[in-house]
Design brief:
- The protein is α/β, with parallel strands linked by helices.
- The protein contains 20 helices and seven strands.
- A five-stranded parallel sheet has the order 2-3-4-1-5, with helices on both faces. Strands 6-7 form a two-stranded parallel ribbon.
- Helix 5 links the parallel strand 2 and strand 3.
- Helix 9 packs across helix 11, helix 10 packs across helix 11 and helix 15 packs antiparallel against helix 16.
- The longest helix is centred in the middle third of the chain and has 16 residues.
- It starts with 7 loop residues before the first helix and ends in a 6-residue tail after the last helix.
Length: 428
């Protein structure tokens, strides 16, 4: 019997991998989790990704498909005593020498303190439980190393536009409460924008929009959606509702050289109780991605900010965050380094594992030297200006310019430096 009182997102929660949308790198035919389920060997793991991308759903499907007992805890309201209680139950239901050991799913595991995480170590190591954690934060920062080393980390990608539209169409065609209505999706931009890429939020907004109509014939347009959704932008919910919208506004203000916008959105996060280290990490990223070599000191400033606020905490940390945010906003901007690594990675993907040229290979043995490793390598310090005209890219892509300095004073100096040495080779 259908539970019409449950939210639409809950009614449509996938029960099998076949119904699961997106994350093909994990659940596709050759996905890591698909292979684990096929062989019945489920390792402890942590799902890292934005809200509403199916972390909890995936944990439920794994437990169901593997036929294992399933226990859940929320890091928001579970202490060490609750963890130990669940572990004891898991030991009794699973046994010590079975591959069917129970699964313990912990939502928002990044909110667990060190002592709470420590209490999981023995159970994971002994195999009393298979741990599945879910987090929206980088586990490298939020999960203790001892626990992280015992888990595989799987990154869940944000839903694409196609994924989100597929969710809407599935709701219209599959949900018992909606499929008897005549719903036409004429425009989806407003729904997708309001959802912020969160599949759960998208479905719940969609249900709100549909239920607000007195007719069973509904045409979904952007204006129709915006007329019916009260989007209170003054509210800040650090668990996901406004989390990504406001951090996006904060970073875009810095990128756009607007210290006023930057400090306003910073204040919104501080007043909302946002994690001080989350803000500081985003400043670190912005210092490199949006400023880079236009002002290398920005990265030093952001790194010092991260260290300082991690030690000090609120309320004084707000002053340091403000200093860093306004400094970054007032810095010259360049995304040249960011673009360079993106272009380099794309080049690697398209050209494959090209061989390292012989002249720049390491030659620690006599055999390697005989084979020509390191032969004809020009040691730069033996040449005028500490520069020898020798390329370092694989033969197939020689002459490719990947790094293109930005249009600012510091990087124009880099351009002159490179032009003086490479002449016209890379068109600097």
């Amino acid at each position: 019997m259908d539970n019409f009182n449950a939210p639409l997102a809950e009614r449509l929660r996938p029960q099998t991998l076949e119904d699961y949308i997106s994350q093909t790198h994990l659940v596709g035919e050759k996905g890591a989790l698909t292979q684990q389920l096929k062989h019945g060997l489920i390792a402890s793991m942590i799902f890292w990704g934005p809200p509403g991308t199916g972390k909890t759903t995936l944990a439920n499907i794994i437990a169901k498909d593997s036929g294992r007992p399933f226990y859940t805890l929320s890091a928001i309201n579970s202490g060490v005593a609750a963890i130990r209680e669940v572990i004891e139950k898991a030991k009794q239901s699973g046994g010590l020498f079975t591959t069917k050991n129970p699964i313990l799913f912990i939502d928002e595991i990044h909110r667990f303190s060190k002592s709470q995480q420590d209490s999981l170590l023995q159970a994971v190591e002994k195999g009393w439980i298979t741990l599945i954690g879910a987090t929206t934060e980088n586990p490298s920062f939020e999960v203790i190393p001892a626990l992280l080393s015992r888990c595989q980390v799987y990154n869940l990608d944000a839903f694409s536009k196609e994924d989100l539209e597929h969710l809407l169409k599935r709701a219209i065609n599959k949900d018992a409460a909606l499929k008897n209505k005549n719903i036409t999706l004429e425009e989806t931009d407003a729904l997708l924008r309001l959802s912020g890429g969160d599949g759960r939020k998208l479905l719940n907004i969609f249900e709100l929009v549909v239920s607000s109509s007195n007719s069973d014939t509904i045409s979904i347009t952007n204006d129709y959606v915006l007329d019916r959704v009260q989007n209170n932008t003054a509210r800040y919910d650090k668990t996901g509702e406004q989390h990504y919208d406001i951090i996006s506004a904060f970073i875009k203000s810095i990128r756009g050289s607007d210290p006023n916008g930057a400090v306003y959105w910073l204040a919104r996060m501080i007043e909302g109780g946002e994690d001080v280290k989350f803000i500081a990490r985003r400043l670190l990223i912005a210092a490199s991605e949006d400023i880079g070599n236009a002002n290398p000191t920005a990265l030093v400033m952001a790194n010092n900010t991260f260290q300082a606020v991690s030690t000090i905490g609120y309320p004084e940390a707000r002053i340091i965050l403000s200093q860093c945010a306004t400094y970054l906003a007032c810095s010259p901007k360049s995304n040249a380094a960011y673009k360079a690594i993106g272009d380099a990675q794309e080049l690697v993907k398209t050209t494959g594992d090209l061989s390292v040229p012989l002249e720049i290979r390491n030659a620690p043995t006599k055999l390697m030297k005989t084979l020509g490793y390191g032969k004809n390598y020009k040691y730069a310090h033996n040449y005028d200006g500490n520069f020898a005209d020798q390329e370092f890219l694989p033969e197939a892509i020689k002459g490719t310019k990947i790094y293109d300095p930005g249009d600012n004073a510091r990087e124009q100096e880099q351009r002159k430096f490179l032009k003086l040495r490479w002449k016209n080779k890379y068109n600097y």
